[in-house]
């Protein structure tokens, strides 16, 4: 019974670990070399995805105000493709 209670109490932790794409990233965080996942909104669009050392890096999606979408792999701030 104790094991079951322990598992039930720890279960939410399994789903709350790691970075969240809903996390709002600021320009200051990027300047400080943020690494993780989140959403960054700025004048040329909105990027949702992974960051490494303050750059778009990994899987992510950039949507421009005009509706253009670049979705796929990013490396050091540059779009590589799908």
Q: Structural class, please?
A: alpha+beta
Biggest sheet layout: 5 strands, antiparallel
Order of helices and strands: HHEEEEE
Q: Return the average pLDDT rounded to an integer.
A: 83
What is the straight-line distance between the termini? Answer: 48 Å
Tell me what portion of residues adopts beta-strand conformation: 35-45%
Strands of the widest sheet, in order across it, are: 1-2-3-4-5
- Annotation field: number of helices: 2
Q: Over all CA atoms, what is the radius of gyration?
A: 17 Å
State the shape. globular
Assign a percent range to the helix content. 10-25%
Low-pLDDT segments, ≥5 res: 4-17
In quaternary terms, these chains amount to: single chain
- For the secondary structure, the number of strands is 5
How is this structure best described in words?
- With 82 residues, this protein is of the alpha+beta class.
- The chain is built from two helices and five strands.
- Strands 1-2-3-4-5 form a five-stranded antiparallel β-sheet, with no helix packed on it.
- The longest helix is centred in the N-terminal third of the chain and has 15 residues, at 2-16.
- It is globular and about 30 Å long.
- The N and C termini lie far apart (48 Å).
